[in-house]
From TrEMBL, chain A:
InterPro entries: P-loop_NTPase (IPR027417), Rab20 (IPR041836), Small_GTP-bd (IPR005225), Small_GTPase (IPR001806). This is Ras-related protein Rab-20. Residues 135-146 have a biased composition (Acidic residues). Residues 252-261 have a biased composition (Basic residues). It is an enzyme of class 3 (hydrolase). It comes from Stegastes partitus (bicolor damselfish). Residues 124-158, 236-261 are annotated as: Disordered. Transmembrane segments: none annotated. Its cofactor is Mg(2+). It comes from the Eukaryota. It is a lipid-anchor. It catalyses: GTP + H2O = GDP + phosphate + H(+).
TrEMBL record, chain B:
One of its GO terms (cellular component) is cytoplasm. This is Transforming growth factor-beta receptor-associated protein 1. CHCR repeats lie at residues 566-731. The keyword Transport does not apply. It comes from the Eukaryota. Keywords: Receptor. Residues 23-300 form the CNH domain. It comes from Stegastes partitus (bicolor damselfish).
Length: 261, 877
C-alpha cells in the first residue's frame, strides 16, 4: 500500500509566521536534509509511519494570504507545533496574536508545543548536528539557501548574515523563558489547568533545521505524546457502527467462494 | 512537469453550433451518455449526439450529430442545464426560473395538477449525486434563491418539483454543492458546510466571493473541492477537515473537476492539471476563451464561448510509461500506486510490479544502485533480467529470455556504459553484491543455476575473494559453463573445487597437480601441494588416494606421507589397511619410516610386526649412515637416538633378529647392550658397556633403566652386578689391564658408583666384595652414607617401636577409661560362677566387670565347647 493512500490515525499541524522554518523543520525530519525551500503555498502534508500508526503532519503556509485556511488545517488536530524564530521577537508575538485563535478547531485535548527554530544562529551548541543518523552535515550550504524567497516586502526575519558562519552569533531575541511564558498563556487561553497539563519543559524546544539540532527530539516527543490520542481514536472507531466497505469486501468475496463450491 | 495526462479533443465545432452568427455564445453544457446539450445566450438548447471514433492509429476523436435545437422563449441566456436521465428531463435555469424540459423533444413540461414545475428567483442550483432519498424516480436538488438567504431542497419528479426543506444561511449564498445531507456553500465572505437535516454548520475558511468567483465542487462522497484565497484548490470533507494538501491554481480559475488522480482546472487561457497524489502541476494545456469546465460521469468536458471540447485522459499505463521514459521514476510510482483503487487487484499487482522493475532499471542505468535494488526487490524482479544485461553471464543452458515488452532500453552493459569502463566496473560490483544477497532468498528460486553461475563468473573475472567461498559452499554453478570461464581467468584452484563439488575429484586433482608442477599458473594458493595432500588425506575414494599418493610422495615424501598418517578417523571415511600402506610405501624408506612411526609411536599399535619393522628400518638407516665414508654426525646421532629410544621403549620387537643384524657391528654397542638388557642378559649388556664401550654413565643408566619397572631388590641386584663387573675387571686381569692403564679407571668407576648410588647397595655385602687395599678415604662418601643410612634406619625403627609402644599404652588407657568403674571384691561377695565367697584378692574379671574366681574361669574355659580363650584378664582391686 503506498504511503499516500494510508489513512492517517492522527493529525499534527505546524503553525507559525512565515520564514520561521516550518517546512525546513519538517523536511529535515522527513528527508534528513536541510534543503532550499520555497515559500509554502497553501499547505502540504506528509505521512509518517510511527510504529504501527500513521501520523499526518501538516505543514501550513505562514503567509498572511493563507491565514484563513489555518483553522481548517487545525480542525481535529491532536497536536499543534507553534513555531517561531529565535532571532525574531515578532515571530513569537505573532503566534499569540494570529495563530493561537486558529487552534480553536483543534481537538479539546490537543497538545501544544512551542518551538524556537534557527537556534544555530544564536547558540553554538546547536551547531552540533543531533540527527539520529549521525551523518555530518554539509556545512558549505550557504545562507542563500536558508532564507526563503522574500515574497512580501514586510519580511519579519532579517536574512542571516554571513557573519553567523564565521562564528559571530546573532542576537537572540527570544529566550527560552519567553517561550515558557507563552506556553503558560496558551494554557490559560485554553482554560487548562497548568498542573494537569504537560509541563513547559517537555513541550518547549529550541531547534535548528539547518544542523538538525533537536529536530528528531521534537517530532519524536510529539509522536509519543499523541499516542494516547491515537489509541482512543482507534477504540472509538471500533465501537462505531460504520462498516468499512474496503475491509468487508474481502470477507464477502471469501464467503461467496465458499458458497459456490 | 509535462506529463501527458490529457488530450483535448474537439467535440462540437463552432460551425455546427452557431454557424456564422457572431453574437451567440455558449452559456452552459450538459452531457448524459452520448447526449450533449448546449445552452446558449440566445435562449436556445442544442441537442447533439456525441460519438467516439477511434482511428486506426488508436487516436480518439468525436463526431457530433445535431439532433435538435429549441428556443425556450425567454430571450435570456440559458444559465444552467442538468439532466435527470431517469426522469428523461432536463432541469433548466433560465432568467432566474428553474423548469423542466423533455430530454428528447426539448418541450417544456407543463405543470402537473398537484403542484408547479417551476421555481422562481433562482440564482443557482445543484443536483445531489449522493441522495439520501432512495427513490430512483426523483432527483434531489439544492436551490439558491436571490430573494432570501436560504437554501431550499427540492424533490424533482417527472412533472413537478416539491420543496422538502428550507434552511437559512448567515449570509447570502452564491454557490452550492450537495452530498447526502451536506450542503457545501460559498457565502459572501466564507465557505461553510451545512447539514440540512440537523441544521449544524461548520465554517470552512474565509473567501471573498464578490472579489473572485467561488468554486464549490463535489468530488467524491462527502468531499468537496473549493477555490481558496491565493489561487488554491482546497479539499474539504463534510466534517470541515482537509484530508489532502491543496493544489496551487492561478488566481483566475473558472472551473475545476477531478478526474482521478488529477485535478483539472480551467482559467482564462490555460487548462492546468495537478496530481492529487503529490500536488504537483503535471500538465498545462493552452485553451483560449475558456468558459466552462465540468465533468460528466468521469468525462471532463470544456467549452469556450464558441465550441465544446472533451478532455480525454490518456490511458494510465501510457502516462506511467511516459513518465518512465523521461526517467521520472518517483512520479510514475506515485501515479501507479495512486491508481490502485481504479484498477482490478490482480491487474494492479502485475502493473505495479512491472513499473517497479522498470523504475529499478532506470535507477540502475543512472548507477543509483541503492534505489535500483529496492525497486527490484519490491517489484520481485526476475533476477535474470538483470543478469542478462551483462554479456555472457547467463549460462548457455539457461532457458531465460527477456520479458517483452522490454523492461529497459539497454541492449547490454556496454550499451549502458557507453564504453566507460569505470561504469561497467561499478555495475559489475553492484551485481556481485546484489546476487550475493539474493542467491539464498526466494528471489533465486527456479533460477539458482543461472544466479550462481553468473556470480561465479563475476567473482572469477573480478578476482573476488568470495569465489572460493561460493564454491566451497552449497552452490548450483553449471559446470559446463563455468569451466572455460575459470580457465580463462586462470582460476584453476577454484575450478578444482568446482570439479570436486560435482564429484569429479580426479579431474580436480589432475588440474591441481598441473598447477603444482608449474604447467598451469594460478597463485590462489601457495600451499596447493599441502592442500592436495590434505584433500587426499580426507578423501573417501581409496582408488583416488592410491593413484595420487604416488605423485605426492614423489614430490615430498615427508609431507606426502600425511595422506596416510593424518587421515582423520571418521566413520564416513573408509580405513586404510596398514599392511597395504606399508607394502605401497615399501620402495620409499623415508615415507615408510614416517608411516611406521605414525603406527607405532602415535597410534601405539601393539603389533610385533610394525615394531620390528620400524626397528629394522631405524637400524638400516643407522647402518647405511655408518657405511658412508664420512657420516654426518648430526644425522647419525639423531638416527641412533631414535633407534635407541625405540629399542628401550618398545618390548614388542624381535630382539634376536635385531641382535643378529647388528652382531658384527662394533659401532652399535650401546644398542646391543640395550637388546641384551631386553633379553635379561644383564651381564652381557654390562660387559659391553663397561669393557667394550667403557661408558660408565651409560652402564649406570642401564641399571636404572633395566630395573625401572622392578622392585628395589632387582635394582640392587643389578647394581651389585655392575659393581662386580667393575671389580672383576680390575682384579684378575690386573696385569693386562694395568698395562692399558684401565684398572684404575674401573676402580674409579666402582668408587664413583658406590659414592653416587650408595643407597642402592647392601653395604655389608659391598664391604665383603671390596678389595682389602682400598683406602677408607676413597670410599668415605659411600661409607659415610651407608653408616648414616644404617644409623638412620636403626633410629627410625626405634622411633617406630617407641611410637608403637606409646600407642599401645594410649589404647590401654582408653580402654580403662571406658570401663571407669572400679570392681569391688570383698569376702562377702560371691563368685558368679560358683557362688562361693572370695578368699583371696586375685580374681578374674569377666566382661562387664564381674569378678569371678580364677579357678572357676579356668574350669569354664576347659569346659566350654567353643574353647574360647579369655585373654584380657587382669586383677584390679
Amino acid at each position: 500500500m503506498p504511503d499516500k493512500m494510508k489513512r492517517p490515525d492522527v493529525k499534527l499541524v505546524l503553525l507559525g509566521d512565515m520564514n520561521v522554518g516550518k517546512t525546513s523543520l519538517l523536511h529535515r525530519y522527513m528527508e534528513r536534509k536541510f534543503k532550499e525551500t520555497v515559500s509554502t503555498v497553501g499547505g502540504a502534508f506528509f505521512l509518517k509511519q510511527w510504529g504501527p500508526y500513521n501520523i499526518s503532519i501538516w505543514d501550513t503556509a505562514g503567509r498572511e494570504q493563507f491565514h484563513g485556511l489555518g483553522s481548517m488545517y487545525c480542525r481535529g488536530a491532536a497536536a499543534v507545533i507553534l513555531t517561531y524564530d529565535v532571532t525574531n521577537w515578532q515571530s513569537l508575538a505573532e503566534l499569540e496574536e494570529r495563530f493561537l485563535s486558529l487552534t480553536d478547531t483543534a481537538n479539546h485535548d490537543c497538545i501544544y508545543a512551542i518551538v524556537g527554530n534557527k537556534a544555530d544562529l544564536t547558540d553554538p551548541k546547536a551547531h552540533l548536528s543531533r540527527t539520529s543518523d549521525g551523518q555530518p552535515e554539509d556545512q558549505t550550504e550557504c545562507e542563500e539557501e536558508r532564507t526563503e524567497p522574500q515574497v512580501l516586502s514586510a519580511c519579519p526575519t532579517p536574512p542571516a548574515s554571513p557573519a553567523s558562519l564565521s562564528g559571530v552569533m546573532l542576537h537572540k531575541q527570544v529566550t527560552h523563558e519567553d517561550a515558557v511564558a507563552l506556553y503558560g498563556r496558551i494554557l490559560r487561553y485554553k482554560g487548562l489547568d497548568e498542573k494537569s497539563s504537560l509541563p513547559a519543559e517537555k513541550v518547549c524546544f529550541e531547534t535548528s533545521a539547518k544542523t538538525g539540532y533537536n529536530v528528531d527530539a521534537l517530532f519524536e516527543t510529539m509522536f509519543d505524546l499523541v499516542l494516547p490520542s491515537i489509541l482512543r481514536k482507534r477504540h472509538e472507531n471500533q465501537e462505531s457502527p460504520t462498516v468499512d466497505l474496503e475491509d468487508s469486501q474481502g470477507a464477502h468475496s471469501r464467503k461467496a467462494r465458499i458458497g459456490c463450491c | 512537469m509535462s506529463v501527458k495526462a490529457f488530450e483535448l479533443v474537439p467535440a462540437v465545432e463552432r460551425d455546427l453550433l452557431m454557424g456564422d452568427k457572431a453574437r451567440i455564445n455558449i452559456e452552459c453544457i450538459e452531457c448524459c451518455g452520448k447526449h450533449l446539450y448546449v445552452g446558449t445566450n440566445d435562449c436556445f438548447i442544442h441537442h447533439f449526439l456525441l460519438d467516439e471514433v477511434t482511428s486506426s492509429k488508436g487516436k480518439l476523436s468525436y463526431s457530433a450529430q445535431k439532433l435538435l435545437h429549441k428556443y425556450l422563449g425567454l430571450k435570456k441566456p440559458v444559465a444552467e442545464l442538468r439532466a435527470a436521465s431517469a426522469l428523461e428531463r432536463l432541469i433548466v435555469l433560465c432568467d432566474g426560473i428553474v423548469f423542466l424540459v423533455d430530454m428528447v423533444t426539448l418541450e417544456t413540461v407543463p405543470s402537473a395538477a398537484g403542484g408547479g414545475a417551476k421555481i422562481r428567483s433562482v440564482t443557482a442550483f445543484c443536483i445531489n449525486e449522493n441522495p439520501v432519498n432512495g427513490d430512483p424516480f426523483c432527483v434531489e436538488m439544492g436551490v439558491l434563491s436571490s430573494k432570501r438567504r436560504t437554501v431550499q431542497i427540492y424533490m424533482v419528479y417527472e412533472d413537478r418539483v416539491q420543496l422538502v426543506k428550507e434552511v437559512t444561511t448567515p449570509e447570502q449564498p452564491c454557490a452550492v454543492s450537495l452530498d447526502g445531507y451536506f450542503l457545501c456553500l460559498a457565502l459572501t465572505t466564507q465557505y461553510m458546510i451545512l447539514n440540512y437535516n440537523t441544521g449544524t454548520s461548520q465554517d470552512l475558511f474565509p473567501y471573498n466571493s464578490e472579489e473572485r468567483r467561488p468554486i464549490v465542487k463535489r468530488i467524491s462522497r462527502e468531499e468537496f473541492l473549493l477555490a481558496a484565497p491565493g489561487g488554491l484548490g482546497m479539499f474539504a470533507n463534510a466534517e470541515g477537515i482537509s484530508q489532502r494538501a491543496p493544489v496551487n491554481w492561478s488566481e483566475s480559475v473558472i472551473g475545476a473537476a477531478v478526474c482521478f488522480p488529477y485535478v483539472v482546472a480551467l482559467d482564462e487561457s490555460f487548462i492546468t492539471i495537478h496530481s492529487m497524489l503529490d500536488q504537483q502541476l503535471k500538465q498545462t494545456l493552452s485553451f483560449r476563451d475558456g468558459h466552462i469546465l465540468q465533468d460528466f460521469e468521469g468525462k471532463v468536458i470544456l467549452a469556450s464561448i464558441k465550441a465544446v471540447y472533451v478532455s480525454v485522459p490518456l490511458p494510465l499505463e501510457r502516462q506511467i510509461q511516459d513518465l518512465l521514459v523521461s526517467h521520472r521514476v518517483e512520479e510514475a510510482l506515485i501515479l501507479t500506486e495512486g491508481a490502485q483503487r481504479n484498477i482490478p487487484k490482480d491487474k494492479f499487482q502485475i502493473l505495479h510490479k512491472r513499473i517497479l522493475q522498470q523504475a529499478g532499471f532506470i535507477h540502475f542505468g543512472q548507477l543509483q544502485f541503492l534505489e535500483a535494488k529496492e525497486h527490484f526487490r519490491k517489484g520481485q524482479l526476475d533476477v535474470r533480467e538483470l543478469i542478462s544485461l551483462y554479456p555472457l553471464l547467463l549460462p548457455a543452458s539457461s532457458s531465460f529470455t527477456r520479458c517483452h515488452p522490454p523492461l529497459h532500453e539497454f541492449a547490454d552493459l556496454n550499451h549502458l556504459a557507453q564504453g566507460d569502463q569505470e561504469k561497467v566496473l561499478r555495475c559489475k560490483k553492484f551485481l556481485i553484491s546484489y546476487l550475493g544477497e539474493v542467491r539464498s532468498t526466494e528471489v533465486a528460486n527456479g533460477c539458482r543455476e543461472d544466479v550462481d553461475t553468473a556470480l561465479l563468473k563475476l567473482y572469477a573475472e573480478q578476482d573476488h575473494d568470495s569465489l572460493l567461498d561460493l564454491l566451497a559452499s552449497d552452490n548450483a554453478c553449471v559446470l559446463a559453463d563455468s569451466v572455460p570461464w575459470l580457465e580463462k581467468y586462470h582460476k584453476y584452484f577454484a575450478l578444482g573445487l568446482l570439479y570436486h563439488y560435482h564429484g569429479q575429484d580426479s579431474a580436480a586433482l589432475q588440474l591441481w597437480i598441473r598447477v603444482v608442477d608449474g604447467d598451469l599458473q594460478d597463485s590462489t594458493r601457495s600451499d596447493l601441494y599441502e592442500y592436495i595432500v590434505d584433500f587426499l588425506c580426507s578423501s573417501s575414494n581409496l582408488d583416488l588416494v592410491w593413484n595420487y599418493a604416488d605423485w605426492a610422495l614423489r614430490k615430498d615424501p615427508t609431507t606426502g606421507v600425511h595422506i596416510f598418517t593424518k587421515r582423520p578417523g571418521r566413520k564416513d571415511l573408509p580405513e586404510l589397511n596398514p599392511d597395504d600402506v606399508i607394502t605401497y610405501l615399501g620402495k620409499d624408506s623415508q615415507a615408510l619410516i614416517l608411516y611406521l612411526e605414525h603406527l607405532v609411536l602415535e597410534r601405539r599399535i601393539q603389533k610385533e610386526k610394525f615394531h620390528t619393522h620400524l626397528a629394522v628400518m631405524y637400524l638400516e638407516k643407522v647402518l647405511s649412515l655408518l657405511s658412508e665414508s664420512s657420516p654426518d654426525e648430526v644425522q647419525l646421532t639423531e638416527a641412533r637416538g631414535r633407534l635407541q629410544a625405540l629399542l628401550r621403549e618398545s618390548s614388542l620387537y624381535r630382539v634376536q633378529l635385531l641382535l643378529g643384524k647388528m652382531e658384527n657391528c662394533e659401532q652399535l654397542l650401546l644398542e646391543r647392550a640395550t637388546l641384551h638388557g631386553k633379553l635379561e642378559e644383564h651381564d652381557k649388556a654390562l660387559h659391553i658397556l663397561v669393557h667394550k664401550l667403557r661408558d660408565f654413565p651409560s652402564a649406570e643408566a642401564f641399571c636404572i633403566w633395566a630395573s625401572s619397572c622392578r622392585d628395589s631388590e632387582y635394582r640392587q641386584q643389578l647394581f651389585h652386578l655392575l659393581l662386580g663387573v667393575y671389580l672383576d675387571g680390575s682384579l684378575p686381569a690386573n696385569a693386562q689391564a694395568a698395562a692399558r692403564g684401565g684398572t684404575g679407571e674401573l676402580e674409579m668407576a666402582a668408587v664413583d658408583l658406590l659414592n653416587r648410588h650408595g643407597e642402592v647397595f647392601d653395604a655389608v655385602q659391598v664391604l665383603r666384595m671390596l678389595p682389602e687395599g682400598w683406602s677408607l678415604q676413597l670410599l668415605r662418601p659411600f661409607l659415610g652414607r651407608a653408616v648414616r643410612a644404617s644409623m638412620h634406619s636403626c633410629r627410625t625403627s626405634q622411633i617406630a617401636l617407641g611410637l608403637a609402644h606409646s600407642e599401645n599404652l594410649q589404647l590401654l588407657h582408653d580402654r580403662l577409661k571406658e570401663r571407669k568403674k572400679p570392681i569391688f571384691v570383698s569376702k562377702k561377695k560371691g563368685c558368679h560362677l560358683c557362688h562361693n565367697t572370695f578368699s583371696e584378692p586375685a580374681v578374674v574379671c569377666l566382661p562387664g566387670g564381674v569378678p569371678v574366681h580364677t579357678h572357676c574361669v579356668a574350669q569354664r574355659v576347659t569346659d566350654s565347647p567353643t574353647k574360647r580363650q579369655l585373654t584380657n584378664s587382669s586383677n584390679h582391686t
